[in-house]
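ASSEMBLY PREDICTION REQUEST
Request ID: AP-0331
Submitted by: J.K., bench scientist
Number of chains: two
Total residues: 527
Priority: normal
Notes: Please return the full assembly, not individual chains.
Input sequences:
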Amino acid sequence: MGNSKEKDMVRPLLSSDLISWKNIRIEQWIAFFGVGLIMFLAVCAYGSSKCLSTLAQSASSDVQAQAFWSPDYPLGKIRSEWEMADDLPTVVETITFTPSQALQHIQQELGAGLDFSWLDKNPLPPTAIFRLSPSKDQPAMDIIQQIRDLPGVDRVHTNPLQLYTAKAWRELLHSVLWPFISVLVLTQAVLLANTVRMALFKLESDIHVLRLVGANRLDCQLPIIIRMLCLTAAGTTVALGGAKLLHFQVSAIVSSPPLHIPCSFLSWTEVFAVFLCAFVVTGLSCSLAIHKHGM
Amino acid sequence: MLHKPIIQLRHVSHSFAGFWALKNISLDVSAGEFIFLTGPSGAGKTTLLCLLHGTLPIQRGEAKIAGYDLRRLSAGKLHLLRRDVTVVFQDFKVLPLRSVRENIALPLIIRRLPALQIQRRVSAVVRGLQLQGKEDTPCGHLSGGEQQRVAIARSIVVNPKVLLADEPTGNLDPEYSLRLLDIFGKFNAHGTTVLLATHDHNLLRAMPQSRIVHLAYGQQQGEGYGPPSSEL
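STATUS: Completed
Returned structure:
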């Protein structure tokens, strides 16, 4: 009986903390929702950019290049180069035309009645059409340069519109994404710093009393920083959960016809990076706010 | 039996914007001594206690308390002084939203004492200051006298080397004031040095063996033992 009574009396002391969290309920909610919303926006922006980048990457995989060899270059050597080019892992398909095959092909395309027998010499050069599958390690421009460097190649034509559009898209995404995420990170830092400052104003008398009864700076500062880190962890977890739900909904729509956009969620490494970034921003902004407050 | 000096003041002065609240105070207090600091309002009693607690800086002179040289004590080490030297403030400085138990336990939690030890000590001072039944009441709901008792409990619960009390009986009835003095006396008997600022002559009469230091207009007017004379 006495033991349980003593336990009941101990509990409030164990649960009691040096900071009166009840005094700063609103500030804690602001921190939680603020961090949650900002991290949600950041994760959505990053995820969207990742999906669009993948789409741009896949669009640029339809690159076609047509190489023309010099008419004077020996056809035997050209054939061996075609075989060599066809063996490249980034070349999906190769369609080759010797000058006579090209002429024949034109004849078929334009009509059977067309007669080219009056030509003394076939003016068409040996040519090959390559369908390419570029990757991150080997972009389309590198493969095209490889083809251009083949001996005897006179010129190479590509379908630049698709290739450059995809490249421009990726560059645009990167140039917009990182400034946007930086602005969000800055917003989070300002929001938390101001929230901590507001909390410190409300806790001023409490902290004053704590200092008078022997608390050092860390006794007063650490609970606030730890609390803000916990709220950041909670806000980020909720943000990632919300983003995952959104991804679940959106990926079901965009990955089906006619869009066929491959849309994957953040990897574990990226999730870890999101948490790390949130913690660093919170830790720094809180420390700065406390330092500025002169606590 | 008196021991080595635990408080040493040498020509200590303090001014507020040109007004000298304390002028050229020199005082030696031995460990285990019980001293009354008397004087009219504005005499400098509170200023002297604030200097000894590190709440105000030493502007002139030398001051040592419980082994700390206040002139050289950095802000980062002030908490160490305040763990050895506690103070009962005239305006209590209790946390109004915290319960009586939490307020009293604060300095013990800061000292990282085990929860059971905190509980035992808190219970003991709660009984000693007759705050039973109020343990879970927020201090903001208590009367001035009860808040003063909480402030006293918070100061004595840590068994300080030096206890500074600024008008600790200001909000208490005469009977309870004498009982409180008895509690201070018991702590003093266990080795705590007590420096009590008051202008309540009943307290001075109740402890005739204690030293009395009289201040007026920020200056030390005299000191002695025994019941106060008429000029005090």
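REVIEWER COMMENTS: The interface with chain B takes residues 6, 9-10, 12-14, 16, 18, 20, 22-23, 205-206, 208-217, 219 of chain A (CB under 8 Å).
SIGN-OFF: pending second reviewer
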